[in-house]
Design brief:
Length: about 80
Amino acid sequence: MVDVRLAQVVAGVFQLDSREISPELGIGAIEGWDSLGHLNLVLRLEDAFGIRFTTEEIPQLTSVEQIQKSLVEKGAI
């Protein structure tokens, strides 16, 4: 199950219904989740959760599942 706030952020960035967001979704599976979309998503996540991703972490955030794992590790959710 995807955290509600995470689903809302992803949905907001990519103009989707938050109920459509599943752990499997990622780069290539969502229209607009390209390099620019990825940067926008990362920035919105950082603002929404009050955290910062390192330059090493950002390329690894390739799916909703990976993002959620990272947010859990950071204690954000």
